[in-house]
TrEMBL record:
Residues 1-126 form the Protein kinase domain. It comes from Paraglomus occultum. This is 11350_t:CDS:1. InterPro entries: Kinase-like_dom_sf, Prot_kinase_dom, Tyr_kinase_AS. One of its GO terms (molecular function) is ATP binding. Pfam families: Pkinase. It comes from the Eukaryota.
């Protein structure tokens, strides 16, 4: 999923993705460092997100859904905004195919999740 999004220009370049030894079922991911980008979260704290930025995020989500995938952790801290309001998404560890991706059972319940999130259950399709 990350490589597909990178090839479309919507994610940082993926340099490495390796499973950590020891049966943890955890991957370590090394991606391009985008110094000129900041999180939508940090922008929204000080400024309003531009309509162009919001439209780009909507377009990215629609394209992902058209390809049959969901992000599953799409929130302001996982949206990077760069020069001229360009947008890239990060944190694809819960992404997967629509109707197959699930949320982990132990996620932070203090975060404001999409209203359709079912913790430890099937995806809400975000």
């Amino acid at each position: 999923i990350i490589m597909r999004y990178y090839n479309m220009g919507f994610a940082p370049e993926l340099f490495a993705c390796e499973q950590i030894a020891g049966g943890w079922h955890i991957n370590i991911v090394v991606m391009e460092l985008l110094m000129e980008y900041c999180t939508a979260y940090s922008l929204a704290e000080k400024y309003h997100l531009s309509s162009r930025t919001l439209k780009q995020v909507k377009t990215l989500v629609e394209k992902m859904h058209d390809l049959g995938f969901v992000h599953e952790d799409l929130r302001l801290s996982n949206i990077l905004v760069g020069p001229e309001s360009s947008v890239k998404l990060v944190d694809f560890d819960w992404a997967g195919k629509i109707e197959e991706a699930i949320y982990p059972p132990l996620i932070n319940h203090e975060i404001s999740w999409h209203p359709e999130v079912k913790f430890g259950a099937e995806s809400a399709g975000t």
